[in-house]
Design goal:
This protein has 327 residues and is mainly alpha-helical. It is built from 14 helices and 4 strands.
């Protein structure tokens, strides 16, 4: 088992290479991995619902502690998905090196090819559909049909959670909360595609979250698990919804009697959360790591930008402080 950690730049490039690799993954394999990821999220959901909804008295007297319990238990599903190479929406939870293969994925011929718009669309659609199939199947078979969460106080607890978090919440509130989750948790991808071949314009597509970035950076199993767990823990305690998590929770809530229709399940629930997660992962984390660790990796571009600002002095050295600034 490898030990130690990658530097932030090395981790960014590791995610970049793996993200490009996944663009060429066979559709049936991508779908299967995402179905499996959805199933694992369902088991994390069962654990967290039992742990957090089993004490109604505690929920009434100390709701913050209940959130902490929920947040401490649900991320088990993300850790398991990464460990076994399963995948979660947009596009893959295994975009970071996994437990069984802690080293960054080596460069191969496929990395030299440039992604096309349809490849990105395929990755998004296949991952999303695979996850919802796995999550809803897990909710029905392992949580509802087995009766594990159909009895009190679990049933009313799940219904109350879905009602308060989705039914009674405003669309824009759900969207903004989902941005916070995308920042912290949403699985990562960095890839570069030649979207406008005639103009030779290269477009970088990034989806990095703090959770998956830390999961990539750390090489030993314990550190990797903590890196995956802690940002997800913060997200759940803050009630920031994750796309695949809510696929399971909302579907289970509907089965248990929550006032959420099938149409609202997609429009009021999955649509704002999917979009919010995308924005959070791309803007708040992906753009930062791309600019710092890929676009300006040699320091020259950042230096040129700095010197181009009105009134800025000329820099001798690179853009990271290894030099002096002349007055």
């Amino acid at each position: 088992m490898a030990t130690g950690a990658l530097s932030p730049k090395e981790a960014t490039h590791a995610i970049y290479r793996t993200g490009q690799y996944h663009l060429y993954e066979p559709t049936q394999l991508m779908f299967l991995k995402n179905v499996y990821g959805g199933l694992l999220v369902g088991f994390g959901g069962v654990l967290s619902q039992i742990a957090s909804k089993g004490s109604p008295g505690l929920l009434a007297s100390n709701p913050g502690l209940v959130r902490v319990i929920h947040g401490a238990t649900f991320p088990v599903s993300l850790i398991c998905a990464n460990a076994v190479g399963a995948e979660l929406y947009e596009p893959q939870s295994s975009s970071s090196p996994s437990f069984s293969n802690p080293e960054p994925v080596p460069t191969s011929k496929c990395f030299e090819r440039k992604g096309r718009p349809m490849q990105y669309a395929r990755a998004i659609v296949v991952a999303w559909i695979g996850n919802i199939v796995g999550a809803v199947f897990s909710a029905f078979v392992f949580s509802y049909a087995t009766g594990v969460l159909t009895e009190e106080p679990y049933r009313s607890g799940v219904v109350a959670q879905v009602t308060a978090g989705i039914v009674d919440a405003q669309w824009h509130t759900i969207f903004i909360r989902a941005i916070g989750c995308g920042f912290l948790v949403r699985p990562s991808c960095i890839a570069k595609g030649q979207f406008f071949a005639r103009r030779k314009l290269m477009y970088g597509v990034l989806q990095i979250t703090l959770s998956m970035f830390l999961g990539t950076m750390f090489l030993d199993g314990t550190s990797k698990a903590l890196g995956l767990h802690l940002p997800f823990f913060v997200s759940i305690v803050a009630a920031f919804p994750h796309t695949v998590e809510i696929m399971y929770d909302a579907a289970l809530g509907m089965m248990l009697g929550a006032p959420l229709s099938i149409g609202a399940y997609f429009y009021k629930c999955l649509l704002p959360i999917t979009l919010g997660n995308f924005v959070g992962g791309a803007v708040f984390t992906g753009a930062y790591f791309w600019y710092v660790n890929i676009h300006c990796e040699d320091g020259e571009k950042a230096k040129d930008w700095f010197e181009g600002l009105p009134g800025m002095p000329r820099m001798n050295g690179n853009a990271y402080g290894n030099g002096r600034i002349d007055g």
